[in-house]
Specification:
Immunoglobulin-like, elongated, alpha+beta, 4 domains, six-stranded mixed sheet, Rossmann fold, 486 residues
Length: 486
């Protein structure tokens, strides 16, 4: 397929989206980011997009009011660079083509904000509104297109978004296709020649199809389904739910508060992952429901009431905590997904954390204490809600060391040093000249991780020196003895 055929294919791809727009007004959101300079078979994607618009809008339905919004077309690195270039109006094809031909392509990709602004320009909460997004990249402005789509779908009177993806990988396509899936629209990938050829065929079929007569009203018959789980479940626990049902595309098992609307959902598992499904319960207590939901219509096909019961935990420090030291903490608790043991200042907020260990690593957990002195707490925290299930107070007090070594040694001789002290991983025994400052660079040093006693070599010059115990990070000297090198 030559390049002109590919441009025609891209045009046909976009043409497929236009007949699907069942709205009085629609806005095309065109990607103006710098990545549109990328090429497909030697032709920049921006030129393919312009050609597609020119080809399709020449034959756009006369009764459809179209507009054009662009992003990333005026400034580099600006996530607020979004502009309505052509307000929606009838016979807008020529205006949109001219605006697209004059666009620059150089900025970021604020997909979520652009779609939201397009919806607002169409007064989506009051009127039927359709947005057609044309992008060659994913969101780059720290927003969640899926969450925005869900919000617009919930707030809108009849909001629909269609997405045309240029050269997106499968994973990238999933990150933007939810804009269409959440709003009842369609996602059109534009990739290799085979896909584009298939789209041309679909476009011709749509163009030739005659309107179907209105169907006779029929009584809705829902598929059969069932779910089964324990009647009482510890809050925050992950359980297995056995189910039967139609297993239609994107159907799911979820847990919600009792009586929640049909489109409500909590933690969920798609039915295409098989039965049983693994679901993590909320952290709250009381009455909930586990449901089988038909994704296409959000209809609940089956449900089972469950009661979430209270959970408890304990923590106990097996060692005496010292500043900067590592403590083994024995714990009991629900061991829910990503629960953790941590150390924080006494009275810190529940979502505060210091050094931590996940409970799935087992008990006891190893936690490194802060270097600063004072009152602290070791906590068991439920990761889902950041609620503290158990805590134990600890006080970090100054720990002095003690040294024992010969009073003198020969030049370069090995000296055996016995010591006591915090024994933090990076604490060390050092030799410095007599009278040296606390932060003086040592002549000799060795880590306390070697245990006691340890061996250190005397300096290479005779004189008076000091053997010192120095703390990790803080640089505090906790013990000193003199040494004469002969």
């Amino acid at each position: 397929m030559n390049i002109f055929a590919k441009i025609l294919a891209a045009s046909a791809l976009f043409a497929l989206s236009v007949p699907a727009v069942a709205a009085d007004q629609a806005i095309i959101v065109l990607d103006g980011s710098g990545s549109m300079w990328g090429q497909i078979d030697g032709v920049p994607k921006l030129e393919i997009a312009r050609s597609a618009l020119r080809d399709v809008l020449t034959n756009a339905p006369a009764g459809l009011e179209l507009g054009l919004m662009a992003y990333g077309h005026r400034e580099k690195g600006n996530c607020s660079d979004i502009q309505l270039l052509v307000p929606p109006h009838a016979n807008a094809g020529g205006d949109i083509i001219a605006a697209a031909d004059n666009m620059k392509f150089l900025g970021k990709t604020p997909i979520s904000a652009a779609v939201r602004q397009a919806a607002e320009a169409l007064r989506f909460t009051e009127d039927k509104a359709t947005v057609i997004l044309i992008t060659d990249g994913i969101e780059t402005c720290e927003a969640n297109p899926c969450a925005v789509a869900a919000e617009l779908e919930e707030r809108g009177l009849d909001f629909t978004a269609h997405v045309v993806g240029f050269g997106l990988s499968s994973d990238e396509g999933k990150q933007v296709s939810c804009l269409a899936e959440e709003t009842g629209g369609r996602y059109f990938p534009a990739g290799d020649a085979a896909e584009l050829t298939r789209v041309i065929g679909e476009t011709v079929a749509v163009a030739q199809a005659q309107p179907e007569p209105e169907p006779e009203p029929v009584k809705e018959v829902l598929p059969e389904a069932a779910v089964k789980a324990p009647a009482e479940i510890p809050a925050g626990a992950t359980i297995e739910v056995t189910w039967i049902g139609p297993n239609a595309d994107r159907d799911y098992i979820t847990v919600v508060e009792k009586g929640a609307p049909e489109d409500a959902y909590g933690d969920y598992a798609r039915t295409d992952s098989g039965s049983p499904a693994k679901i993590t319960m909320p952290d709250g207590l009381g009455a909930y429901e586990i449901r089988y939901v038909l994704a296409q219509s959000k209809r609940v096909l089956a449900s089972q009431p469950v009661t979430l019961t209270a959970v408890s935990a304990t923590v106990e420090a097996l060692d005496t905590p010292v500043p900067g030291g590592t403590v083994e903490v024995e714990w009991t608790g629900p061991n829910a997904d990503r629960d953790y043991i941590t150390v924080v200042e006494k009275g810190a907020p529940e979502d505060a954390y210091g050094d931590y260990a996940r409970t799935n690593s087992g008990s006891p957990a190893k936690i490194t204490m802060p270097d600063a002195l004072g009152a602290y707490e070791i906590r068991y925290v439920l990761a889902q809600s950041k609620r503290v299930l158990a805590s134990v107070p600890v006080t970090l007090a100054e720990v002095r060391g003690n040294l024992s070594a010969p009073a003198s040694a020969a030049v370069g001789a090995a000296i055996e040093v016995k010591w006591t002290g915090p024994g933090n991983w990076e604490d060390f025994i050092e030799i410095v000249p007599e009278g040296a400052a606390a932060d003086a660079k040592p002549l000799r040093e060795t880590r306390t991780s070697q245990g006691s006693p340890l061996s250190i070599f005397a300096p290479s010059s005779p004189g008076k020196y000091l053997i010192r115990y120095k703390m990790r990070d803080t640089g505090d000297v906790t013990a000193t003895i003199p040494l004469i090198v002969e």
